[in-house]
Structure formats: structure tokens, C-alpha cells
Amino acid sequence: MRVLNAPQPACPGIALRQLERSDLHAWYSVLSHPETVEHTSWNLHSEQDLLPVFAGIESTDKDSGRRLAIIDQHTDALIGTIGLHTVSSVNLTAEIAYELAPAYWGRGIASAVCSAFTAWSFSTWGFVRIQGTVLESNVRSEAVLRKCGFRHEGLLRAYRMVRGTPGNYQMYARLSSD
Questions:
Q1: Measured distance CA(71)–CA(66) in Å, rounded
Q2: Which among 40, 47, 112, 116 could disulfide-bond with 11, CB atoms 3.0 to 4.6 Å apart, if both were Cys?
Q3: Tens of pLDDT along 6-62?
């Protein structure tokens, strides 16, 4: 689903905008860093593996995914993305997902983007719950979610396949009433 009026994070020099097909090469470059995907379930072999995500973004179905590009305003470079998948308009829930190029880690960017995007998602689409699942080895992402007010709800054993192996995930969630 296309996004209008993307939120702007409280992080100087960083902006959010709609992710476009023209971003394919830049996004794949971010996801090609082994450190970026090490603690995720991404299993990409080529840029073509990202095309189904764009199909979802372009869909008008109210349960389709949404994805924004994270932009370094100084260079106009795509440095990551943030979005929602597993959207349920019936239950007013969605799952947040994001990644950031390793060169930008440790600057508070992921937390600022996650916070702005989560608040905006509640107000724009009326979600009552946004959850985040984090591979148990991804302590950086857990810290981002906690910093953004997500609460730990438990361990999901063998929740998703991680490059052919069942992975345990920590479940975090934030409610619109939190």
C-alpha cells in the first residue's frame, strides 16, 4: 500500500519517504551486507527476490504491506527501510520490520525512525497493536524496540525459518493505548 505524508523522525539529516521500485538496487545493497541480515530471516540471492515486496507496496489491498525508505538527506542515499507486514485490517494489527546499513548503526537512527513510524502508524491507520518479532540473537533490534516503548511478551520457538533452520524469536508489542 502506498504511503502519503510519511512521518519525519526526530533525527537531523534523516528522512522517510515512500520506497519506490527505483530504490531496488540501493535496498539490495543495504541487505547485501552480511551484518545487516545476520540476525534476520532475510534469505536473498538477487535483487529479484525483493520484487514481491514491491508488489505488496503497490497493492491497493488494505492488508498489504507498507514500506518506507530511510534516507540520508546529506547524500540522498537510501540507508535502510522500515515498514509493516502481516497487516490485519480486521484485527487492527501489523508487524513492524526495519533494517539499516551498518555504517549508520549506533547513532540512534533506528530508534528515531521506529518511534516516529510506530506513532504515525497508530494515528494514520488506526492500529491497536504493532508487534515486532526479533531473532533471539538480534540484541540490537531488541534494544530499539524497547527504547520505542515495545514490551517483551515472550519467546516464539521455531517461529520462522532462518536460511533453512528454524529460528527462535522474541515477541515484542506496543499498543496504541501504551
A1: 16
A2: 112
A3: 999 999 999 999 999 999 999 999 999 988 888 888 888 999 999 999 998 899 999
Torsion angles phi and psi, residue 88, rounded to 5: -125, 105
Question: Of 101, 137, 121, nearest to 173 (Cα)?
Answer: 121
Interatomic CA distance for residues 141 and 97, integer angstroms: 10
pTM above 0.70, yes or no: yes
Domain count, the chain: 1
Domain of residue 89: give its range.
Answer: 14-175
| Residue 134: CATH number of its domain | 3.40.630.30
Closest CA to 96 of 120, 79, 78, 72: 120
pLDDT of the residue at 97: 96
Q: Any alpha helices (H) in the chain, and if so which ranges?
A: 24-31, 34-37, 51-58, 109-125, 139-147
